[in-house]
Design brief:
The protein contains 8 helices and 7 strands, in the order E-H-E-H-E-H-E-H-E-H-E-H-E-H-H. The chain is an alpha/beta fold. It has one domain: Rossmann fold. A 7-stranded parallel β-sheet has the order 3-2-1-4-5-6-7, sandwiched between helices. It is globular and about 55 Å long. The structure holds NADP nicotinamide-adenine-dinucleotide phosphate. NADP nicotinamide-adenine-dinucleotide phosphate binds next to helix 1.
Length: 251
């Protein structure tokens, strides 16, 4: 059974992943700012003795090392580190009008935290079994639709690709799971939310990576590979189509 750290475990994909991994017998360090939600999660499992709660704001650089050390000291090693915590912003406000502090927070949570997690976790991952880092990206890290959010998710894709090459000599693998729209708190205010799949669809892929080893990039649901492919071969067409959609939204 693996020792797994999950950031952003208080809701959505992170919470569902934590529950699934706990039910399968793994040991977890779960982290987020909302400690009440983390405590509730533990109560909903029968694995309290295998779950460590580590409250953390990953926008604070020191939090990543504190999280890694808390998990490492409790379990003696880390086998899997999952960078899942993420934030976005409403579509209705143009991102260039957001307060600089808000922009700073989005970049810190979505991008800087995964970067800093590597140095924080590596000493403990080196003690782990088949150690791996799993970054949660997004389809919008392939097909950019939302300035700051897409930029952070493109960034995490480049980071993961480089990590896979740079960390191979350390025996640590790196993967990325890129969801399309999924029904969570992050998408609660979007149109069509009731038509979105639930987080379970992403959890299945994460559990698969944890238990059967690393793959490069997992896009989920798989049908999002079509727009990703289209964006690669016909970017002008995608510019036109998404440009029309945005124009219709602002009319
Ligand atoms: N839902 C989708 O359609 C979708 C699509 C593509 C990618 N994703 C990605 O999937 C990941 C999970 O998102 P979700 O959909 O499950 O959203 P969610 O339900 O809103 O969960 C986000 C999680 O991130 C945590 N978080 C936010 N800011 C944090 C901070 N400063 N420090 C620590 N934790 C923080 C939240 O916990 P606290 O508020 O308690 O701190 C929460 O647990 C994100 O990386 C997101 O970008 C989601």
């Amino acid at each position: 059974m693996a020792v797994i750290v999950i950031t952003g475990a208080s809701s959505g994909i992170g919470e569902a992943t934590a529950k699934a991994l706990a039910a399968r017998g793994h040991s977890l360090a779960i982290s987020a700012r909302r400690t009440d939600r983390l405590k509730q999660l533990v109560q909903e499992t029968d694995a309290a003795d295998r779950i460590l709660i580590v409250p953390a704001d990953v926008a604070e650089p020191a939090a990543l090392k504190a999280l890694a050390d808390a998990a490492g000291e409790r379990f003696g090693r880390i086998d899997v580190w999952i960078n899942n915590a993420g934030v976005s912003y409403p579509d209705k406000v143009p991102w260039w009008e957001l307060e600089p502090e808000r922009v700073d927070n989005i970049v810190r949570v979505n991008f800087l935290a995964p970067i800093l997690s590597v140095g924080a976790a590596l000493p403990w991952l080196k003690k782990g079994k088949n150690p791996q880092i799993i970054n949660i990206g997004s389809v919008s890290g392939f097909v950019a639709v939302k300035g700051i959010y897409s930029a952070t998710k493109f960034g995490i894709r480049g980071l993961t690709e480089a990590m896979r090459r740079e960390l191979a000599s350390e025996g640590v693998s790196a993967s990325m799971v890129s969801p399309g729209y999924v029904r969570t708190e992050l998408t609660a205010n979007r149109d069509q939310v009731s038509n979105m799949p639930g987080p379970e669809i992403v959890v299945k892929e994460i559990v698969n990576l944890v238990e059967h080893g690393a793959r490069r990039n997992v896009v989920v649901p798989g049908y999002y590979r079509v727009p990703i492919w289209l964006n690669t071969v016909l970017p002008g067409f995608v510019d036109f189509a998404l440009g029309r959609r945005n124009a219709a939204k602002t009319r």
